[in-house]
Specification:
single chain; alpha+beta; Alpha-Beta Plaits; 37% strand; globular
Length: 95
């Protein structure tokens, strides 16, 4: 199992567009056969910070996600163009 978070910061004026992009990306990503969990969040008290928790069956599933047309359209062509900052945290299962 591969799990990670992606934290992104956006401008306040882009909030509605960010919600639209995240809705499309999450809906399509959850349909991928190797996707276990894909949940976008805003941070309490920081409405312009988004954290996406992602979990995939294996590296092949992660690669398929990143190669998908919806990732290209919503993430690379949308979110990445609007973000001010991006951090990825790879997670290791404890139990």
């Amino acid at each position: 199992m591969i799990s990670f978070t992606v934290r992104m910061k956006f401008r306040p004026e882009d909030r509605q567009r960010i919600v639209e992009l995240l809705t499309g990306l999450a809906t399509a990503s959850r349909q991928e056969p190797g996707c276990v969990t894909y949940v976008p969040h805003t941070v309490d008290g920081e409405p312009d910070v988004v954290v996406i928790y992602e979990q995939y069956k294996d590296q092949k599933a992660v690669d398929a996600h990143r190669a998908s047309s919806h990732f290209r359209d919503y993430a690379v062509g949308g979110l990445y163009q609007l973000m001010l900052d991006r951090q990825v945290e790879n997670l290791n299962t404890v139990v």
